[in-house]
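chain below, 522 aa
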Amino acid sequence: MALIKKGSVFTLIGFYLLTIPFFNALNVTSYDNSQILGHFGASTTVFTYSTYIPFFVMLGFLPLGLKIGKQIPMRTMILSVSFLSIICNTATLYTTTIEWFTVWRALLAILSIVGIFATLIPILLKYNPTFNMPILYGIVQFILQGSKQLYQYFGTEMSSIHNWTFGIYFLNVNFLIAILLAWIFYKKDVAPMKGVFQFDWRGWLILLLFLIVILFLCTEGQTRNWLNDPKVATAIAFLLVIVGIYLIHVRFSDNPIINTDVYQYRNVVLGSLLFFYTGMMNGTGSIVTGFMTNILGFDSIYVARTHLAILIGLFIAIPLSTYLLFKRIYLATLWVTGFACYGMYHTLLYFRFYPEIDTSDFFGPFIFKGLAIGFLYPAASLYISEKVPKPLGDSRMMSGVISRAVFASLLGGAILGTFISNLNVQHKTGLSQQLSELNPIAKEQLDKNKNIYMLKGLSAWEAQKKAEKTLSNQTSQSALMLAYKDIYLVMAALCFFPILILLLFRLGRRPIGRVEVEPIPF
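prediction:
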């Protein structure tokens, strides 16, 4: 009732709708990278750099974007970034090289950061006195997670009818709607959070150098087999030196990007660990996508449609967890529920890695994944923010972003790919050793395949070679599925492990504390 008395629900919806295109500026063209790769004809390594760079640019510009977002009048800023986003987005249609495509995408990533902060400020100012923080965090996470799934689904559907350029046109329409909404809902062109502009330029340059090294590791660590390559080992050593330089820099800076004083708060340390943990658990989704497309041969439309089951879990969990947080439920209750849902997601998928499985078999696990996201993400965002004073708010935000996005999602994803490759080699070696005359099942399958090829008119020698190749391919597929099963079994154990810790040490048996810093939902 307080919301109805003090503000317009219509205005609130308009403010939130403004955030959606900026949240999904990079998501909308990420659903069918194969078409983009084919369009430019770039090498796999170059295309990998092209995929990673916009996200690293977004992360690198994050602290500066937060400062800029508070200095410029809101309507001017939203209109400007929307118009510039249309230009950068459209320019990607007319580029002839992957390098220029990456440049325009990186500029779009920078603009989206400014747009996110610009659109969140009026929500904070107008509804923060009315909204309890859990409700504010819950709604933002609901829009962020839900719109991501819908954008990827509709993008996949339309790209199958048209091509990858649909995402460009679709995003431009979104930015045009943002321009229209800005004219409707922003009556006064003011910068209400404007203050004296102070920015840690030296610390920012150190952060950018840190991210460049991480970019190199994510892109080439796996292909160079990590520490077995001298360049990767040198990059890791250089990374440690950069961290040391930054720690020295903090001692001589009045306003560092990440003030180490923030780690005096226990919840920031544990919250950063929680962000890393949830990012790691969520990062295994790429394995399922690869399994569905590369092994099962599912069309991208079916893959995107199946992933919509995550929305069911989100629609249940985020409103419920938001309501429970508002009602002062114990944090441990939400954490145990969320980790249990992630555990069920990985456990169910562990039993799904076999040939000829149907798309409907993935709906149940994906619903559990949506439930896990809905129970853990709002609670984690609030927990890492509680009792943190406003001067340390940006440090708290950057700590969570680096833990989840940089170390868990980006670098963790690259390391996970290496683990899968190594496990695949081990399983393939073990299975190949069983392909001998002493194995009656293998010999029977080989003879069967050989007879089939001979019936097609091949000579005995050609049929033998074809049969051996077919059996080898089947072995490779089985080895990869065994590697996937190993990963998901380990992840299932890692998901249930925090529940044991929470129950044994009686952690989190209290409601959320006071939160005063801005909810930055990355």
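Residues 460-504 form the longest helix (45 residues). Residues 424-496 form one domain.
thats it, cya
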